[in-house]
Amino acid sequence: MSSAAVPVHSASGIQPLPSLDEAYEACRRETAEWAKTFYLGTLLMPPEKRRAIWAIYVWCRRTDELMDSPEAQAQPLPVLAERLDAWEARTRGLFAGEVGDGLDLVMHDTLQRYPQPLQPYLDMIEGMRMDLTTSRYATFAELELYCYRVAGTVGLMTQEVMGLDAAYTTSPWSGRPDTLPDTTEAAVALGIANQLTNILRDVGEDRGRGRIYLPLDELERFGYSEAELMAGVVNDNWRALMRFQLERARDWFARSEAGVRWLAADARWPVWASLRLYRGILDVIEQHGYDVFNHRAYVPTAGKLLDLPFSYLAAQAR
Question: Domain boundaries in the chain?
Fold first, then answer.
């Protein structure tokens, strides 16, 4: 279901809504504060697209914060479950045209401009529910499902915003869906690659919350125990395990590259920039000797700016 042609109606008892520009500006500030690398990529987009991406990012961040904010961490699981249920109901209402605050307002506007299905949003909420009951993943197949739900879905949410190159949409065959390139698989792959990178960067932080996202069968294969991970032990077995994990994340980034060339011209550069900069976190993890317990991996601002010309060149190659 898309929100196209759905009228807006405010929920009763809600404070007066901000203007659309004010609401988008709030999303811009939140994106700039909490997702610096991602935000830099959005600045390369035309204004209408970047505002839509900010709105979607903030919706995703609010969804994540229901489980991972410091305040949420202090709540019992039944309370968190109720919050997720309420957020799902609110999201379903949003797609039906119900607007209660500034975030709803910009999301409704985004959905009107770039119609898209509800399901990826529900899938992400389901990913948050996985964190209610799951703190270990036995195999990568289990982890892949989690990564799809909490991050691969972002690719689906933003796919319509990115759009296809005009060469395809204006061709004599553009009315035939079977002749148009499909970026869905690549969009999901980029989300999964980003989430795998998050997992590798945040191993130390996640252990503090009692969570291990690295597949347990792979810990066993490399002779590294849960107890060692919880203690932050960096040894040869850990380094071998991390090399394996980084290569898999890079493979998911490589899968995503295949779809970037089909994107609209005004989306290719920002997507390439985001892809290259986020993949750069993996290089920093290597530079730190795979010690993600004592060093947080990030790409410095200077490195981000220096990479932009390379991202631009990559975006020109078809």
Answer: 17-117, 134-318
CATH no. of 134-318: 1.10.600.10
pTM over cut 0.85: yes
Considering the four listed CATH numbers 3.40.50.1980, 1.10.600.10, 3.40.50.1000, 2.60.120.330, the one that applies to the domain covering 17-117 is: 1.10.600.10
- pLDDT of 236-290, one tens digit each? 999 999 999 999 999 999 999 989 989 999 999 899 988 998 999 999 999 999 9
What does the chain look like in DSSP terms, one character per residue? ---TTPPPEEPTTPPPPPPHHHHHHHHHHHHHHH-HHHHHHHTTS-HHHHHHHHHHHHHHHHHHHHHHSHHHHTS-HHHHHHHHHHHHHHHHHHHTTEE-SHHHHHHHHHHHHS---SHHHHHHHHHHHHHHH-S--SSHHHHHHHHIIIIIHHHHHHHHHH-B-HHHHTSTTTT-GGGS---HHHHHHHHHHHHHHHHHHTHHHHHTTT---S-HHHHHHTT--HHHHHHT---HHHHHHHHHHHHHHHHHHHHHHHHHTTB-HHHHHHHHHHHHHHHHHHHHHHHTTT-TTT------HHHHHHHHHHHHHHHH--
